[in-house]
Automatic annotation (TrEMBL):
It is a multi-pass membrane protein. Residues 22-92 form the NXPE C-terminal domain. GO terms for molecular function: N-acetylneuraminate 9-O-acetyltransferase activity. The chain crosses the membrane at residues 273-291, 355-375, 395-416, 423-440, 446-466, 473-495, 507-528, 561-579, 599-617, 659-680, 692-711, 731-750. This is N-acetylneuraminate (7)9-O-acetyltransferase. GO terms for cellular component: Golgi membrane. It comes from Nothoprocta pentlandii.
Amino acid sequence: FKGDDTCEYLLSSGRFLGDKVWQPHSCMMHKYKNSEAKNCLLDKHIAFVGDSRIRQLFYSFIKLINPQVKEEGNKHGNIPFEDKSASIKVDFLWYPEVNGSMRQRIKSWTEAATAKPHIIVAGAATWSIKIHNGSNEALTQYKINITSIAPLLEKLAKSSDVYWVLQDPVYEDMLSESRKMITNEKIDAYNEAAVRILNSSSRNSKAKVKVFSVSKLIAQETIMKSSDGLHLPESSRETNAMILMNVYCNKILKPIDGSCCQPQPPLTLIQKLAFSFFTLSFIGYLIINLIHRNNYRKNKPCTDLENGEEKKPAVGAPAVSTLEMLLHSFCKLGLIMTYFYLCDRANLFMKENKFYTHSSFFIPIIYILVLGVFYTENTKETKVLNREQTDEWKGWMQLVILIYHISGASTFLPVYMHIRVLVAAYLFQTGYGHFSYFWIKGDFGVYRVCQVLFRLNFLVVVLCIVMDRPYQFYYFVPLVTVWFMIIYVTLALWPQIVQKKANGNCLWHLGLLLKLIGLLTCIFFLSYSQGAFEKIFSFWPLSKCFELNGNVYEWWFRWKLDRYVVFHGMLFAFIYLALQKRQVLSEGKGDPLFSSRVSNVLLFISIACFLTYSVWASSCKNKTDCNELHPSVSVVQILAFILIRNIPGYVRSVYSSFFAWFGKISLELFICQYHIWLAADTKGILVLIPGYPMLNIMVSTFIFVCVAHEISQITNDLAQVVVPKDNPTLLRRLLCAAAFFSALLLFSAIQDQPRH
């Protein structure tokens, strides 16, 4: 309601998440590393002017630039700091009282003869209270002095960033006898005077002294941990220094997870064209709808008053045309994309940082598992990994991943390792599902390839355009797309070996195994040859799809992390279908998959393997080391789960319709969460209803799920039109798609020129 000036919120309001994490009201704070701080403050001069409290803030600030700095030197004197590598100069100037000396120093900066600091942080009051024993005369003099300094600070604010730090409360019980006169009542009076006087002459001007009042809120929560009742504990000082860094640097470096003080990004050429297209679609659909309504009124059946029957017109109501269906889909998509843009590109809705607690992750997990078990139904078929079972599997995995993302559980390594298995299980299903289709159907036609590629990539391509993000940003879709093409090429290359051909001659099974061994060899080579991998994906235009931040390292890392699991899925499908063909498996309703003895042994081994992996993942100490082992061992828990889920006949014969419903829109849920459930490209949380976290989650989740479901419907509708079955029409559509992506590359190159 107060506008989109998140800097004001950052400097004045917020709350603690837990003990140490500060959450500004309405926006996200970036945690700056020393390299980022140096990059932002390159060739800058910063001045801290004031008493011992300002000196504390000075030290915390320079430790963001150089963590090795020690707090030593004359406490009641000036302290210089310089980082020659980045030409950064930071000075602390000892002026414990707002008096003539401080005024003279500030006045010298307003004169043209001396260089002005780029950032000025000032504040003082407790010394005045102490020296004058808290007298009212001292407060009156403080008002006179700050009134004389205010115009000078406002003048400096026209060319520099000027901050006046309000006085933090004290912990009166801990104060020494010499400081007992410094009371919170006196501090409030001094702060009130400073706020009233500063900017009094420039209320309508942009050149204002920024009042740093958030420190008071932080101190109220932490001052009891102070060593002397006056000075803040180190964690609070670090928070104040980080706020200062965010206020100044966010608009320069524009970190993704630092939404405070960031201006709304301007619309790109491609975004403008996209919004124009959606607007034209909306207008076109309205026109067609009005025409159809008019025709319907003309041909509306009339009632025969004599016998009460309707006289039907000679011409029936026209069927929905392809054009109307397309325009209707694009209208809905345009409205949805507008919501996406408003949520994560405009400064309309608030964003907050994530904060992990065990309860915020595990309680929702237990809740959805209970719901899932409650909605149990019988399956239509009882085969291993039947459609309902795989939808259920995708559904509960997707819900767990969503809870993992919104709770910030990636900071807890055991949870991270288990979530990595869930992502691997998705890719396992990719290998299993596509191999099974090609092996059984033998359909290597272009129509099948185009259908799969369209369904996987449609939403991501639209989001790349509307949200101005690279394709690789939505890393999971490039991953499954590339693996689908690898599976297709592996099986479609001569000789094409399918189940029908292999049934006639067992040697074809050996030929297929040789193909799979060749694929495994290529995967192994590329995983240990980063240079070769990067060369392949650095060729234009592939580089436009797989580059992130100017290189393909992120893509190589993502691909390498689950490099073997698709192969494992293909191999499992081959073995399972071979056993099924030879009637080794018993897949009847209620029957165990194998004989009772074999089933019991396999079930015991599966449970033992499942728990062993969980114990190993929970004992992980180093993420890098565990990620190195993950590609080879993740299949253990995946296979264990499949056997536990399918060996007992009863368990194989039922499924959760609740999880299966979510499984059918799992891809859309995974992609949509980036912008309309999470915020700042998944780094934060979207806040539609501030001040009510539970209500906010309920409302934003409801909208998020509805949008994902609607996009799934739109994608299916458009797939029927955009990817026709007859080859001549499909070829024309492919040429149109090639022209579209060529134009996209051209416009992308045009809009990238000013950025470079």
